Amino acid sequence: MQAQRKRFIGGNWKSNNTLAKSLELVDSVVNKLEFDNLDVVVSPVSLHIVPIQQAIKNNVQVALQNIGHKGFGAFTGELSFEHVKDLKINWVILGHSERRRTPEISESEEFIANKAVLAINNGLSVIFCIGETIQEMEAKETQAVLEKQLKPLVDQVKDWSKVVIAYEPVWAIGTGKTATPEYAEEIHANIRKLLPDQSIRILYGGSVTKDNAAVLIGQPNIDGFLVGGASLKEDFIHIVNACK
Ligand code: PEP
């Protein structure tokens, strides 16, 4: 029997918007969301997270887009898990392809997994992103790439209730080229085989829109979405509604 998994919709606002614009987005989109039995999490830039959290009037939660690799200490420019917990923030996105694959950032698999484990072991929940490039897909390396990205996490995590996996093919992020529901379902089913627990949620990310959300969420192994561009507009309301 298939495990019941609570659906999850994340909105990744990336490095966009002034504070005023993000507060407007809270008014016009986030505070209009009505749901129960779903997790909805939005992720503003870290500098905005407190005023955004204070402006949210419903059960939408907030997530950081990254976290430092150590606790408090002499790590200039880093945010530690203690800072995050202090402000009652529960979620952090880690391993987004824009942090893995941007040459000037180039976070390694081990570095990302170690940050995830540190966060989880200290009570935070992690949206852990994985995904293949177009070249890797064309070379039929998708499964090997995903396994390599997941392995350091699978080897170390003990409490999987604090992990959501986001499968985001790099070729689909911000390109308008959404994975077909069949392709996404096949990959999600393969990812699930790599995970120790059937109850772990696996999100799809990559050009999710109000028009393709319903068919994607209809796939048995797709438990929700990580949404970039469409989370910055009213379309996010339709995407959340499609998952109810
Ligand atoms: C993302 O940045 O995680 C993402 C999926 O972006 P988009 O929805 O714009 O493709």
Automatic annotation (TrEMBL):
Q: Which UniProt keywords apply?
A: Gluconeogenesis, Glycolysis, Isomerase
Keyword Cytoplasm assigned to the entry: answer is no
GO molecular function per UniProt: triose-phosphate isomerase activity
Pathway connected to this protein: Carbohydrate degradation; glycolysis; D-glyceraldehyde 3-phosphate from glycerone phosphate: step 1/1; Carbohydrate biosynthesis; gluconeogenesis
Name the Pfam families on file.
TIM (PF00121)
| Isomerase is among the record's keywords | yes
Catalytic activity entry: D-glyceraldehyde 3-phosphate = dihydroxyacetone phosphate
Q: Which GO terms describe its cellular component?
A: cytosol
Name one process (GO BP) from the record: gluconeogenesis
| InterPro entries tied to this protein | Aldolase_TIM, TIM_sf, TrioseP_Isoase_bac/euk, Triosephosphate_isomerase, Triosephosphate_isomerase_AS
State its Enzyme Commission number(s). Answer: 5.3.1.1
Family indicated by similarity:
Belongs to the triosephosphate isomerase family.
**Mind telling me which HAMAP family this protein's record contains?**
TIM_B
Q: Quaternary structure?
A: Homodimer.
What is this protein for, i.e. what is its function? Catalyzes the interconversion of glyceraldehyde 3-phosphate and dihydroxyacetone phosphate in the glycolytic and gluconeogenic pathways.
In Swiss-Prot or TrEMBL terms, this protein is called Triosephosphate isomerase
Give the organism, scientific name.
Paramecium tetraurelia
Q: According to the entry, what is the taxonomic lineage of the organism?
A: Eukaryota, Sar, Alveolata, Ciliophora, Intramacronucleata
